[in-house]
Amino acid sequence: MKLNRQKVKNFLYVFFLLLPIVLRWLLPITLENALTIEILYYKLFIPELSYIILILFYRKFKVKHKSIFVIAIFGLLYNLIVDILNFGTSFLPNFVSGTDYFYSLFLISFLGLEKVNIRYIQYITVPSIIIISFQVILLSLGVINVEGVGNNYGGEISRVNTTIGAATGSGIIIFLLVVTNYYVVSKKILSRIVFVIGVLAILLTLSRGAILCLLVFCFYILFNNIKLKNILFRFFLLGTSLIFLVFINYKIGLLDMIENRIEKDDVTSGRDYRVQYGIDLFKQNPIFGNGSSYTIALKRASEDVITKSLYSPHNFYILILADYGIYGFLLVLISILLLLKRFRLYILNPLSIAIFSILIITFNTEIVFIYFEYIAFFVIIISLNPNLITIKSKTINE
């Protein structure tokens, strides 16, 4: 059988676009570190070099989304100025540590997903969600124990860190994968199996934000697919389903475990204090902020970074205010609005509902936007939206 060169090209594009992100999720920390080199204080994950190839040879350095390109460059320049003002001649380690957000926007201004790429996404996202979900399921039930990941605290069902990192981060990535696979998995049976596995894993992360996002997404899907003319009856069915879900969660102990997180000595403890401390840092320099990685050293930070090394405020918006001030906050807000407008997320569909849920509900989990493996996948999936507005998952590969 003769290979179709264009199909191979489309597959390779998707593969090299998502590979650096997926490897960040799946590789143990030792392997991830082994594939990371430091250049001028910048911790480069070697697989990310694929983006240079894609931009130069696939896109031929042609900007696809000019408004996003402009805000990305402007954002990086703003970060540079803020870090020079705060750290003087020692600005470079801090500056490079805080580039992931606008770096991801820069990439998406050239790259992104199109209709011809849709059918190939499942070859990356299905194995990813299965591996990550089984990590959560097996670790949380105590079936396996892996060095470098594990329980935040004990119990019959344990809240876990995975190779992605924190349980909440894992929950949000699994949620995004559930949403993506809703569209791209062509086989109905496989689609349902993957959906069930993903939902179970999200519940077992005990991440309240991810669970709430999942509930909003599922209820939107159900509400729009129940073929009933009587709207009141639709709400009745959805309400009954919610009560059933709560009952099941109660019976298997998930609700108790989520409630007990507040009483146990985990990351939830002292969160009000963290938020207040973030606000206090913002008040120190409200206009321009205190500089990249000042509040907490970010993932790309080298040992030379100037930081207070505090616990994060567990609030993305407060972290931005503390590190980059009002102007930086406005830049991030404008960039989010540009993404919503450029990729037509103002039109309600399952993906836009999922994205709004993440922006509104999980604002207390800054890793979604600060670390490359979260924000890059977030914006790449957003770029797919214009091709999904009028397409249902069951017809997407026909």
The separation of the N and C termini measures 21 Å
- Output mean pLDDT: 81
How many domains, in number, for the residues?
A: 1
- Order of adjacent strands in the largest pleated sheet: 1-2
Count of individual helical segments = 17
Helix and strand element order: HHEEHHHHHEEHHHHHHHHHH
What does this structure look like?
The protein is mainly alpha-helical and 398 residues long. 63% of the residues lie in helices and 3% in strands. It has one domain (5-395). The chain contains 17 helices and four strands. Helix 1 runs antiparallel to helix 17 (372-382).
Topology, pairings included?
Elements: H1 5-26, H2 29-34, E1 36-39, E2 42-45, H3 50-58, H4 66-87, H5 91-97, H6 100-110, H7 118-140, E3 150-151, E4 160-161, H8 167-184, H9 188-205, H10 208-225, H11 231-251, H12 254-260, H13 271-284, H14 316-342, H15 350-361, H16 367-370, H17 372-382
Antiparallel strand pairs: 1-2, 3-4
